[in-house]
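$ ./design --mode recover --in tokens.txt
reading tokens...
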């Protein structure tokens, strides 16, 4: 299969696709991104992702180089050109090319790029059957984690520590000892009282689209949702834990820092949320 990437107005063979060495995304991580799940040829929760993209752009005073309808055409054309039905769509908009100075001229031309890659859903579902291990570590990120910035070094470092420790995700902890979120996921527990808990939205976490979608399922599933932040000790003592992201949907967490969660297998609430999310998108 020939892979195609979209970069700044052109659909290019994947191996030839690139941005200029003085693109501010490359030199300063000056840009924002989105990741969409692609299921049976359709991107999930497109409107919510594009709304968040608009907010991220606005928060860093960046204007998209294309209109929303044009962006949709580009995303779909990149999917079509790659002939991928199930996978992940990645897009980013950087501030564009300029001589390296921290401050930027207002006249820059922002650069949009889009890639698509297949995803082995069978493998993801297989992992979800047994669940993943999480480690906790200090949240070393900046104070604007609500922006979906391509500047992800602390997230990358946290994930790498987790993987090298034999886990699959890192949950990060703020100065008050409360869990913020995963390195690339939203963190959730079903606490000892049976309440579904996840941190409330603020500048210290990303407004996850999967989080938004699960909120819509809560009533239907008669779950009690409580947006009170939780400590790592509450997570150790939780009945169930899971991480959410567009790439994972709902991923059960069965071990945190060596503490078995529940009976060490994916719990009923987690499983129900995963099934309901899948059904609502089928
Ligand atoms: N990560 N929190 C962080 C820090 C994330 O990077 C992500 C997503 C999420 C979940 O957001 P959503 O449900 O909208 O995918 C929460 C993406 C998938 C990534 O960086 O690959």
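writing sequence...
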């Amino acid at each position: 299969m020939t892979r195609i990437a979209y970069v700044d107005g052109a659909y290019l063979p994947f191996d030839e696709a690139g941005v200029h060495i003085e693109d501010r995304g490359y030199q300063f991580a000056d840009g924002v991104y989105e990741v969409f799940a692609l299921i049976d040829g359709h991107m999930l929760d497109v409107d919510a992702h594009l709304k968040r993209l608009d907010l991220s752009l606005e928060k860093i005073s960046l204007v998209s180089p294309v209109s929303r309808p044009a962006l949709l055409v580009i995303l779909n054309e990149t999917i079509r050109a790659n002939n991928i039905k199930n996978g992940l769509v990645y897009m980013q908009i950087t501030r564009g090319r300029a001589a390296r100075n921290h401050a930027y001229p207002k006249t820059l031309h922002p650069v949009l790029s889009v890639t698509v890659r297949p995803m082995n859903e069978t493998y993801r579902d297989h992992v979800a059957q047994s669940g993943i291990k999480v480690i906790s570590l200090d949240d070393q990120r900046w104070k604007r984690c609500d922006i979906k910035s391509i500047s992800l070094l602390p997230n990358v470092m946290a994930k790498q520590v987790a993987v090298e420790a034999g886990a699959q995700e890192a949950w990060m902890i703020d100065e008050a000892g409360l869990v913020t979120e995963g390195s690339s996921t939203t963190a959730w527990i079903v606490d000892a009282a049976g309440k579904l808990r996840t941190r409330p939205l603020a500048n210290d976490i990303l407004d996850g689209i999967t989080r938004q979608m699960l909120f819509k399922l809560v009533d239907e599933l008669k779950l009690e949702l409580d947006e009170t932040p939780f400590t790592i000790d509450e997570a150790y003592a939780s009945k169930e834990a899971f991480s959410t992201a567009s790439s994972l949907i709902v991923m059960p967490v069965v071990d945190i820092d060596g503490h078995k969660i529940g009976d060490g297998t994916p719990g009923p609430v987690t499983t129900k949320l995963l099934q309901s999310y899948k059904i609502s998108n089928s």
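exit 0
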